[in-house]
UniProtKB/TrEMBL annotation:
Residues 50-139 form the Rieske domain. Gene3D superfamilies: Rieske [2Fe-2S] iron-sulphur domain (2.102.10.10). Keywords: 2Fe-2S, Iron, Iron-sulfur, Metal-binding, Oxidoreductase. It comes from the Bacteria. This is DUF5914 domain-containing protein. Coiled coil: none annotated. The keyword Kinase does not apply. InterPro entries: Cholesterol_7-desaturase, DUF5914, Rieske_2Fe-2S, Rieske_2Fe-2S_sf.
Length: 333
């Protein structure tokens, strides 16, 4: 990767392209014990009981953001000062679903009997700690996490949002957070499982080879035909339910893709469901990138669609992993 120059355009032409079936197999490199070890270390890191519930831009207006985290109903809205507040989504009076209630002048007003909540303790309703990092909103649920609480979540290093193009994708699948994290800690599947997006993938460093706790990957993002954007990406897991990809070389140095896994609770059949909330925070020092930021409202749906296409595959991976684990058939370590 070090020998790849940065030209006037971010594109490169693949000169020695090989067919999908003739690329080098990666199954020997993708050692189950290596992936399992990285997952185990991620699960041992503190989260402080913080859970991502959605995008910052989705919290506001005249309706709260309603989510379920590990079976607990949660509502999030903004007070008159724009501060994010959160709490139980069940009205303490007669159990109305507060996610369906309106927000008026920073106060959530229950639509059943008019009980008004301004974000402070009232009538048996107790708020949850909430945190807005400028891209994502987090809620701290100490009764769910059971860890030593932290004052703030473990937010990955990222470009300044005001100077970046941000987009947030959300999806859900039948699996547990560890299955989503394990998917992201297996970089070897990229060019095989997602050939429409990734080619020429090589895992340059692993925790086993480099002595650290990250995966460094040289990969090219497909644009059209043989046109690609080559980069080096480094994957780390700063907390149990988050995996971050940092672009460290090539186009968009400093850009990040954050994958957050939030448990939702069981479905009607008792199977666990997990939300995938993925934030793309893209940055570039090219002069034309200012135009991309200006066109963010048009570009965000395209970025979300690209993330969604990848996660249709990756959620199938995570769901399959959970299915095998839950029936004692998973061959991984």
């Amino acid at each position: 990767m070090a020998g790849r120059g940065r030209g006037r355009l971010p594109l490169s032409l693949r000169r020695n392209a090989v067919a999908w079936e003739r690329q080098r197999p990666t199954w020997r490199d993708a050692k189950p014990a290596l992936i399992a070890g990285a997952l185990k270390r991620a699960q041992a890191r503190p989260s402080g009981n913080w859970y991502v519930v959605g995008a910052s831009r989705d919290v506001g207006g005249d309706r709260p953001l309603g989510r379920t985290v590990a079976g607990r109903e949660v509502v999030v809205w903004r007070d008159t000062g724009g501060r994010v507040v959160a709490g139980p989504g069940v009205c303490p009076h007669l159990g109305a679903p507060l996610r369906d209630s309106p927000v008026r002048c920073g106060t959530l007003v229950c639509h059943w009997h008019g009980l008004s909540l301004n974000g402070g303790p009232f009538a048996g309703w107790e708020p949850f700690p909430a945190y807005d990092d400028g891209v994502l909103v987090w809620v701290r649920l100490d009764a769910v996490g059971g860890e030593e609480p932290l004052d703030a979540p473990v937010v990955p290093r990222r470009p300044v949002p005001a100077r970046a193009l941000t987009a947030v994708y959300a999806g859900a699948g039948v699996c547990e957070p560890e299955d989503v994290v394990a998917n992201r800690l297996d970089p070897w599947h990229g060019a095989w499982f997602h050939p429409y997006s990734f080619v020429d993938l090589t895992v340059a460093d692993t925790p086993e080879s480099a002595g650290g706790d990250s995966f460094a990957v040289d990969v090219s993002f497909k644009v059209a035909g043989r046109l690609v954007v080559p980069v080096r990406a480094v994957f780390t897991a700063p907390e149990p339910r988050t995996v971050v990809m940092h672009i460290t070389e090539g186009e968009g140095v400093g850009s990040v893709v954050e994958t957050h896994a939030t448990p939702l609770g069981p479905d009607a059949s008792g199977r666990p469901r997990t939300a995938v909330i993925e934030a793309v925070v893209a940055a570039s020092d090219r002069r034309g990138f200012a135009l991309a930021r200006a066109a963010a409202p048009l570009l965000r749906p395209l970025v979300r669609a690209a993330s969604g296409r990848l996660w249709r595959d990756d959620l199938a991976y995570a769901e399959r992993r959970w299915e095998l684990r839950s029936t004692g058939r998973f061959p991984g370590a």
